[in-house]
Design goal:
The complex is a heterodimer of chains A (about 775) and B (about 170).
Chain A (H helix, E strand, L loop, with lengths): L18 H18 L21 H26 L1 H6 L2 H19 L8 H18 L3 H6 L1 H28 L10 H11 L4 H11 L3 H28 L7 H33 L9 H18 L4 H19 L2 H32 L6 H26 L9 H9 L5 H9 L8 H29 L12 H21 L4 H20 L9 H19 L9 H6 L19 H17 L16 H24 L12 H10 L34 E3 L44 E3 L24
Antiparallel strand pairs in A: 1-2
Chain B lengths: L1 H7 L2 H11 L3 H14 L6 E2 L4 E2 H9 L6 H5 L11 H12 L6 E2 L1 H12 L5 H15 L7 E2 H7 L5 H4 L7
Antiparallel strand pairs in B: 1-2, 3-4
Helix pairs in contact in B: 7-8
Classes of the chains: A mainly alpha (about 775), B mainly alpha (about 170).
Chain lengths: ~775, ~170
């Protein structure tokens, strides 16, 4: 399947495997069986020979074997690049992979075999969809819709401009006598222009992901590369059909125009239909969680294939289905399926991307080339010029309508980020020789442009981004504050737009949300979640993430004291009035707390007991988390009652039950340490942008806790607050001592979560029992 | 409709509004006609709260997009109504119902309750509110002051979010 085959095959997009290869297999199989039955058919031609203990039958496994070898090569390459980080800082991965492909291709050629070429079928049917699905499923919808107008203009008008400008100029160049290119007609040139003018999503993704540019630019270039597929498809088919006729009539142009709408909107429609079906299916999968991810993948792939079936834009179908199904599917499926989907998509798209670049390299070596200096150089130059002019012109036009204008720096990055990639190559490869004798020259030029953009532009974009001080992506996750306030502003703006009578962005978004809530969610989301507002879903997700981190970091098992159950509220901390005391516990409270502790501690290290793939035990961590939520609520109530006690608390160490409980829960010996230098002190700044997923709730420093005022005014359920404290005063004891007034007594919350968890080395190995400090 | 509106709005008024809010002449007249169409009682104010046209314009001025030429102007005069800080202040004031320059837990709860509807329990909402305050609060007063509010929203593109493209 990966062998090079005679190039003048009809572009049969739907045939993936050549029939010849498949039929090679069965005769071998039958030959294998024959020796065994040889003695029963004496008249057989094969002479009796000894029973083969060991035999080699390569042809039998050849195809899967070679495919696996290629994929393994791709993965090893990826691995290699990350083991040697110095190179990958300068050179983007895509370049390295192409070089590897060149080397491998050269090697194969040197051995005497003919190296495989990236066949268009394989590319379009197997290598491209995972990448696009990954991009579509995880598309940042908010930025995408906010900039949709800009993206569409860049994608449609920009690509058209590129294609015609380039095609026209190339035709002019071809007309120049002496270049030997006179035989290439206008339409052939326009076809060439349309092939090469499309910005390639694979290349853009590969390069832009590494430079971490700010989200606006990323979504602009990336969105453009996705949406220009419709334009490319239409132009390609249009010119391919008519390239051999001398002229194109007006009806053809009108039909082409119409077909653009059909292709793009049809593709989106197909995608939406499949997306809705997928969402609906996921509503019923609560009993068979194992195959949930498969539905997502299959429906999306079917959307792609169905769109390709009708010559609609498969990429847009794939994106549309991913976007439509995602909110509903995520509300329906289990957490594990969600993780599965995420990782499978990332895995497949990553492998695909690697394979594509390697094959580009190999195909360069393997293919037949026809180098014509004029053609290639002028293609390159005009490509760049067309892109720059297009971006400049369109931005001037778009800025009239944008609220946040695109600065010249932005424009430069957009123009510079217009990389061409494997789609152009595959489209060029699809041309057949009968109609396009100059196919080799086209391919050579395409490959040159691809190499130039990927190598030169890909390598230099990172230093340029740094040089121009373009805003980078901020690596933080969304805080709940941002979520609340953004939604609040959404509502506010919708109202203001209503007042002004202005049907803007927010108005339509609000309408869509209402429609969604009223009809779609009821149908497509199972059970109770259908009524869950977005804010609550976001909050749940955040809590779940933190809880899982908490459990994974083992913090749950190492909670030594009662207050830590209360301090589990660190995950959901509440504001605390500055003055605070934690009173002593009466006997029955201690009993309750110990019970809670016991239940907590038991649940942490459960392993999945079921090996049967038909029964998947509910995730013990999820179970534990749900129980923890319940317990937290109980503990909260418990603490509320405790607040009412104003007795002087006893020293933590004194309480025998506490120390017993603590020591009992911790295998390491408990020793109060006097100094704290080697204790990791990780203060948490709640609004800090530097705190990503990892829950660094390790050593919180509480502001001084003192007596709770008896007045009822502040009597709400309060938790323990974590403050950033710079001053560290040793010698203050743990939570139980009354802080005289405030600051000098910094109570350190070193109990719960003193295992730093995901943080790297230096903190590990520290005994995570809080020391009397 | 246009001519009728402009006769009710004197030119000096238009000039004043223009200076105060930064809207252009045509925008002001268009918004005035909108105001009059909203003003069913024809008494020059919206609702019983007596929001007159000046107040209307002043509020809407917060939502004017920030233009590039304004960004470069130095602070030689009072800060324009549509600066980022003023936009945020407007939003802040909507939260802060008792006008004590702080968003307390109750005020936050009220806003949250309005946003999520009736299906969510008080306790859950309370924990969200607590979490929100805890995230934002830096001086430990368990309320969100304006500076904390600004800091929390520093990553949000307020200039784009809180702007409406008023047609020229």
């Amino acid at each position: 399947m990966l062998t090079s085959e005679p190039p003048y095959r009809d572009p049969a997009v739907l045939s993936a495997i050549e029939p010849g290869d498949v039929t090679a297999a069965p005769p071998d199989v039958s030959q294998e069986i024959r020796p065994l039955t040889n003695h029963s058919s004496p008249g057989h031609s094969k002479p009796r020979k000894a029973f083969p203990v060991l035999g080699i039958d390569y042809t039998h496994v050849r195809i899967p074997f070679e495919i696996s070898l290629w994929i393994l090569l791709a993965c090893l390459m990826k691995l290699g690049f990350h083991v040697i980080p110095s190179v990958s800082n300068i050179v983007p991965e895509s370049c390295l992979l192409i070089v590897v492909g060149l080397l491998v291709g050269g090697l194969i050629k040197g051995v005497g075999e003919s190296p495989p070429i990236l066949k268009s079928d394989i590319f379009f049917l197997f290598l491209l969809p995972p990448i696009i699905l990954d991009a579509g499923y995880f598309l940042p919808l908010r930025q995408f819709t906010e900039n949709l107008g800009t993206i569409l203009i860049f994608a449609v008008v920009g690509t058209l401009w590129n294609a015609f400008f380039l095609g026209g100029l190339m035709y002019a160049v071809c007309q120049i006598s002496g270049t030997g290119l006179n035989h290439i007609g206008l339409l052939a040139n326009l076809l060439f222009g349309s092939i090469i003018s499309a910005v390639d999503p694979v290349a853009v993704l590969a390069v832009f992901e590494e430079i971490h540019i700010n989200e606006l630019l990323h979504i602009l270039v990336f969105g453009e590369s996705l949406l220009n597929d419709a334009v490319t498809v239409v132009l390609y088919h249009l010119f391919e059909e008519y390239a051999n006729f001398d002229q194109v009539t007006v009806t053809d142009i009108v039909l082409g125009f119409l077909s653009f709408f059909v292709v793009s909107l049809g593709g989106v429609f197909v995608g939406v239909v499949y997306g809705v079906i997928a969402a609906f299916t996921s509503r019923f999968t609560s009993h068979i969680r194992v195959i949930e991810p498969l539905f997502v993948f299959l429906y999306s792939y079917m959307a792609y294939l169905s769109a390709e079936l009708f010559h609609l834009s498969g990429i847009m179908a794939l994106i549309a289905s991913g976007v439509v199904m995602r909110p509903y599917v995520e509300a329906n499926i289990s957490h594990k399926s969600h993780t599965t989907i995420k990782y499978f998509l990332k895995m497949w798209s990553s492998v695909s991307e690697t394979l594509i670049f390697i094959f580009l390299g190999v195909s360069t070596v393997a293919g037949q080339h026809y180098w014509n200096w004029t053609f290639v150089i002028s293609t390159l130059i005009f490509c760049l010029i067309a892109r720059v002019l297009g971006v400049l012109g369109l931005t001037w036009f778009i800025n009239k309508f944008r609220i946040v204008k695109l600065t010249p720096k932005d424009q430069f990055i957009i123009a510079y980020g217009g990389l061409r990639g494997a789609i152009a190559f595959s489209l060029g490869y699809l041309l057949d020789y009968e109609h396009f004798g100059m196919r080799d020259m086209f391919l050579t030029a395409i490959i040159t442009v691809i190499f130039f953009t990927v190598f030169v532009q890909g390598m230099t974009i990172r230093p340029l981004v740094d040089l121009l001080a373009v805003k980078k992506k901020q690596e933080t996750k969304r805080s709940i504050n941002e979520e609340i306030h953004t939604q609040f502003l959404d509502h506010l703006l919708t109202g203001i737009e209503d007042i002004c009578g202005h049907y803007g962005h927010h108005h339509w978004k609000d309408k869509l949300n209402r429609f969604n809530k009223k009809y779609m969610k009821k149908c497509l989301i199972a059970g109770e979640r259908s009524k869950e507002p977005q804010l609550i879903a976001f909050y749940h997700k955040m809590e779940m993430k933190q809880a899982i981190e908490l459990v994974e970091s083992g913090g749950l098992g190492k909670i030594p004291s009662a207050i830590s159950t209360v301090s589990m509220q660190n995950i959901n901390p509440k504001a605390l009035p500055v003055e605070r005391i934690l009173p002593a516990l009466s006997k029955d409270k201690e009993e309750e707390i110990r019970k809670i502790l016991r239940n907590n501690l038991q649940k942490t290290r459960q392993r999945l007991r079921s090996y049967n793939r038909h029964t998947l035990v509910a995730d013990p961590y999820e179970e534990a988390w749900n129980q923890m939520l319940l317990r937290r609520q109980k503990a909260r109530q418990l603490e509320q009652k405790m607040n009412n006690f104003l007795t002087v608390p006893s020293h933590k160490l004194d309480s025998p039950t506490m120390s017993r409980a603590r020591i009992g829960s911790d295998p390491l010996a408990y020793e109060p340490k006097s100094d704290s230098e080697n204790l990791p002190i990780i203060t948490i700044d709640p609004a800090s942008p530097q705190s990503p997923e990892s829950v660094d709730l390790v050593n919180e420093e509480l502001k001084g806790m003192s007596r709770l005022p008896p007045s009822p005014e502040e009597e709400e359920e309060e938790g323990l607050v974590m403050h950033v404290k710079e001053s560290s005063s040793p010698g203050t004891d743990d939570v139980f001592t009354p802080g005289a007034g405030d600051s000098p007594s910094n109570q350190r919350m070193m109990r719960c979560l003193s295992d730093p968890g995901p943080r790297p080395a230096p903190e590990e190995g520290e005994p995570f029992i809080p020391k009397g400090q | 409709m246009g001519s009728r509106a402009s006769t009710l709005l004197r030119d000096e008024e238009i000039e004043e509004i223009k200076k105060e809010t930064g809207f252009s002449h045509s925008q002001i007249t268009r918004l005035y006609s909108r105001f009059t169409s909203l003003d069913k009682g024809e008494n020059g104010t919206l609702r019983e709260d007596q929001v007159n046209f000046r107040g209307f314009m002043r509020t809407l001025a917060h939502f004017r997009p920030i233009e590039d030429n304004e960004k470069s102007k130095d602070q030689n005069g009072p800060e324009p109504l549509n600066s980022r800080s003023n936009k945020l202040h407007f939003a802040f004031r909507l939260y802060d119902l008792d006008k004590d320059d702080k968003i307390s837990r109750d005020e936050l709860l009220q806003v949250l309750r309005m946003m999520v509807g009736v299906n969510i329990s008080d306790e859950q909402l309370g924990s969200i509110a607590d979490r929100t305050i805890q995230e934002a609060d830096q001086d430990g007063d368990s309320a969100i002051s304006f500076t904390e509010f600004v800091k929390v929203l520093e990553k949000v593109d307020v200039e784009q979010k809180m702007s409406i493209r008023f047609l020229h």
